[in-house]
Structure formats: structure tokens, C-alpha cells
Write a structure and sequence with these properties.
three-stranded antiparallel sheet, binds pyridoxal-5'-phosphate
């Protein structure tokens, strides 16, 4: 690895130690009981450092990272909102963390009650009949939901329904999940305003349609006003409607996917319901279904009996199990705390505030950035790069320059509908002052792009590392000390 940046990593000094262990009293016997092929021939190659070296190394690294706790993070589609710290305190309560999933149900009534209550809350929020909280992430929820869809058709002997209609603006996980579920993906076009083209949809609706996957508001942040018509058409053709509810911020407590005609949906607890997810996990992707699909949900389930006791059950019509036990319980605890702390009334403020914030940024910046779709957006919107592209400054350059000013970049080059997509989602948790600072910086970058484009093209100039080789970083990540040593040989 020639261009690997060595500035901070090599701290090892031969013979230095950060631990002390008592002498091994079982030395010879201990070794004998380990099968020969598992015995190490040479000592492990580890950095030789003191405890203080380790603490400083990781503390310094952590401060070089960008997170929602250090700055504004308007990453469209990802809903990087502030996650209240009270939720973190609650989800490590030993009464919950010390439970074992194989414990007798009588001894874990509190945990089962939390699971059941959260199921009921999500059902109410979604306008659906029943939820499973077992899937581990949004994409896993999609797969589970599509397996429900497949089971529903197959249980009726309708084996030729294999086609899943996905809009061209969909999140990449949608077509991927459909493929993994053994279904076929057919694309439906969007109109210039970003919503599904109903005329393009109609000819696709025949007796091979399993269903359609949508998100509303769509990936461009626009509400699909023809949703009731779309639901009618798909249902008449015998298909089901799947709602990608990864980002429920714009609708929370206001509009319910079930009321729009959706039969199945997933929710990302780690986006809308306040679990930190910038580092890629853990997540939780609960799946909700309408009454007629309840029996297909995965096992195990939690039910409440007449006496108010909770039980773990399985259903014979279920599609089977999709997780070990009940999924990521800590994420459920955060979501539960978040919903309860907002309460029925305040949860209704999430959508309007997220929508107001997104529209405020959009209207304030559309003189400098190209807004391909006019009109009121929901929680996010998309610019097609700078309005003035004459100096050759790209969306990537603007995104990198934002880092110099202390802001995380928006989502870029997605959706694929525009060449220079810049997808901005401020969320409801940001103050007007923060939004104003961001707007000012975006204007400043637009001005720099006209007057001094080379600075913007060379950005970032002030970050701890400059332009990274993102492809190599993703394809050949160096995650251990040994991997670095070996790559240098
Ligand atoms: C994040 C996201 C997903 C996938 O969720 P993961 O938890 O990352 O698997 C699916 N759809 C949309 C619209 C998303 O924003």
C-alpha cells in the first residue's frame, strides 16, 4: 500500500506492555488440551503499547470523526437526526441487558411487554394491524416484507406472481431485496416532478404482478398525490403495496401508510426513531402488515393473553424465522423511550418541523443551486448541482468544501435521476440558527465556485486527511494492525 497515510498509526515500541497477567499455573496441561492444529506457532503480531498509548490513540481518532453530535449532518435519505442521550441511558439498564433470550417467559415479562407495546405503537403510527420487530435493519425488513408478499400469493396457489414494480427513483435496497426474495424487478418511470407515472404503470399491471414497492414522499421528497389511484389499480390487478418506511419523519403522526392503501411496510428504528447509525449499526427494521397478512409474519412472536401476561409463540403459517430470537433489543428500547418521551401530541410535530426545515433551506438556496423540481417538498429535496456550472465545479467539490466549513456533506449523486444530485435532509432537530449558518456557507461556496473555482475543486483543505481513495477504502479496508503490516510487505 504505497499511498497509505502513516502519520498516526505506528505507535509500537518493542517490549512495551499495557497489561500484566498472573503466571500461568496450568502451562503444560493447558497446552496439551488444545488440539495441535489450533496451537499458534509464533506469537500474535500485535502493537506493543502502553494503556495510555491505546487510550490516546482511540480518543484522538474519535475526535477526528464527524458525527451528528459534532455538527450538522444533512445526509438525505439517511435521517441523521439528533438522538437524545436519555435513550442511551435507558437501553443499558441492567434489568434488560442482563436478560438471556432463553430465559423462561415468566421471568422476562417486562421485556416482552416492551416488545408488545412497541409493536402496538408502531401499528398505530403506521395504520397497520400487526408488526414484527425481529428484522435487524431496513434492508432486512424489506426482505422480510417481500417474503410475506410471496407467501401470501403462494398460499393461494398463485405461483406466477413474481413481478415487483419498483420506481426508477427507488432506494437501491428495494430492487436488491426483491431479487434476494426470488422475485423479478420491473421498473416504472417517474414523471418530471418525481412522482410515479400512472400511465407507465398501467400496462405493467397483469396477473404476474406480486406487488409494487414505493415510498411516499418519494426519494425526491415529493408526496405522491395519486397514491389512492395507484393503490386501487395495484389491488385490482391482485398485487400488494409495499411501503419503504425507512424515513417516516415527514409523516409521523400525520398520515398513515395503512390509510394510503399499503399492505406491508418496514420502518427503520435507527433513522426515524432515534438510534445512532452513522457507523453502520446496530439497526432494527420492524415490518408491519395489514390484517389479512398477519399469519405470515416471522416467528417468534409476542402475544398478550386475557390476564395481561405475555407469551412467546410461533404460528404455523409463518414464513419462518428471520433473526436469532427477537432481533436487536437495544434499538427497540431506544425507539420505545423516544416515542414515549415525545408522546402522542409531540410526535405530530416531527413531520411539520422536518418539512418546514427542508423547505426553508430549499427556498433559501435555489438562487444558487439548480432546483429541478419546484413546489413544496416534505422532509428532503434534491438540487441538481450548482446553477452556474460554467467553472466546472461539481457536486462532489461542493460536498468536500462543506467539510472545510464544518458541515457534513449531503447525500450526493443519488437519486440517479439527475447528473449532479445533492440530496438535503435537515431533519426536525436542527435550530433555525444552524440552518442559517448552513445556508450562508452554501452561498459562500457558490460564490467561491464563480470567483475562485480552484479552491473548491481542491477541497477539503482543512480536514485531517484530504481526498481519500474511497473505492480502495471500501474494497480493501485495513481493519487490523496485522493487515496494515502485511499490506506493506
Ligand atoms: C436507509 C434506507 C434503507 C435501508 O435501510 P438499512 O437499515 O440501511 O438496511 C431502505 N430504504 C430507504 C429509503 C432508506 O433510506
Amino acid at each position: 500500500m504505497k499511498n497509505y497515510d502513516k502519520i498516526i498509526f505506528e505507535l509500537s515500541t518493542p517490549g512495551r506492555k499495557g497489561y500484566s497477567l498472573p503466571a500461568n499455573e496450568f502451562h503444560t496441561d493447558g497446552l496439551k488440551s488444545i488440539p495441535a492444529d489450533l496451537l499458534r506457532e509464533k506469537s500474535a503480531q500485535l502493537p506493543e503499547v502502553s494503556e495510555l498509548d491505546v487510550v490516546r490513540h482511540f480518543t484522538n481518532l474519535s475526535s477526528k470523526n464527524f458525527g451528528v453530535d459534532t455538527g450538522f449532518y444533512p445526509l438525505g435519505s439517511c435521517t441523521m437526526k439528533y438522538n437524545p442521550k436519555i435513550n442511551e441511558e435507558l437501553c443499558v439498564l441492567p434489568e434488560f441487558t442482563s436478560l438471556h433470550p432463553l430465559q423462561d417467559e415468566k421471568s422476562v415479562q417486562g421485556a416482552l411487554e416492551l416488545y408488545w407495546n412497541l409493536q402496538r405503537m408502531l401499528s398505530e403510527i403506521a395504520g397497520l394491524s400487526e408488526f414484527t420487530l425481529n428484522p435487524y435493519a431496513g434492508a432486512h425488513g424489506e426482505l422480510t416484507g417481500l417474503m410475506v408478499m410471496k407467501h401470501y400469493h403462494e398460499a393461494r396457489g398463485d405461483y406466477k406472481r413474481k413481478k415487483v414494480i419498483v420506481p426508477d427513483s427507488a432506494h437501491g435496497t428495494n430492487p436488491a431485496s426483491a431479487m434476494v426474495a426470488g422475485l423479478e424487478v420491473v421498473e416504472v418511470k417517474s414523471k418530471p416532478n418525481g412522482s410515479i407515472d400512472v400511465e407507465d404503470l398501467k400496462p405493467l399491471l397483469d396477473d404476474t404482478v406480486a406487488g409494487i414497492m414505493m415510498t411516499n414522499p418519494n426519494t425526491l421528497g415529493m408526496f405522491e398525490t395519486e397514491i389512492m389511484e395507484i393503490a386501487k389499480l395495484v389491488h385490482e390487478a391482485g398485487g400488494l403495496l409495499y411501503y419503504d418506511g425507512a424515513n417516516l419523519n415527514p409523516l409521523l403522526g400525520k398520515v398513515r401508510p395503512g390509510d394510503m392503501g399499503f399492505d406491508i411496510m418496514h420502518i427503520n428504528l435507527h433513522k426515524t426513531f432515534s438510534t445512532p447509525h452513522g457507523g453502520g449499526g446496530p439497526g432494527s427494521g420492524p415490518v408491519g402488515v395489514a390484517e389479512h397478512l398477519k399469519q405470515y409474519l416471522p416467528n417468534p412472536r409476542v402475544i398478550k393473553d386475557k390476564d395481561g401476561k405475555f407469551h412467546v409463540t410461533t404460528d404455523k403459517d409463518s414464513l419462518g424465522s428471520v433473526s436469532s430470537f427477537f432481533g436487536n433489543f437495544g434499538v427497540m428500547m431506544r425507539a420505545y423511550a423516544y416515542i414515549l418521551s415525545l408522546g402522542k401530541e409531540n410526535i405530530k410535530n416531527v413531520g411539520p418541523l422536518a418539512t418546514l426545515n427542508a423547505n426553508y433551506i430549499k427556498e433559501s438556496l435555489k438562487d444558487d443551486y439548480l432546483l429541478p423540481i419546484e413546489g413544496v417538498c416534505k422532509h428532503e429535496f434534491v438540487f441538481d448541482g450548482l446553477k452556474d456550472k460554467s467553472t466546472g465545479v461539481t457536486t462532489l467539490n461542493v460536498a468536500k468544501r462543506l467539510l472545510d466549513y464544518g458541515f457534513h456533506a449531503p447525500t450526493i449523486y443519488f437519486p440517479l435521476l439527475f447528473h449532479e444530485s445533492m440530496m438535503i435532509e435537515p431533519t426536525e432537530t436542527e435550530s433555525k440558527e444552524t440552518l442559517d449558518e448552513f445556508i450562508e456557507v452554501m452561498h459562500k461556496i457558490a460564490k467561491e465556485s464563480r470567483e475562485n473555482p480552484e479552491t473548491v475543486k481542491e477541497a477539503p483543505l482543512k480536514t485531517i486527511v484530504r481526498k481519500l481513495d474511497e473505492t480502495t477504502a471500501a474494497k480493501n479496508p485495513i481493519l487490523t494492525y496485522n493487515a496494515l503490516k502485511e499490506s506493506e510487505q
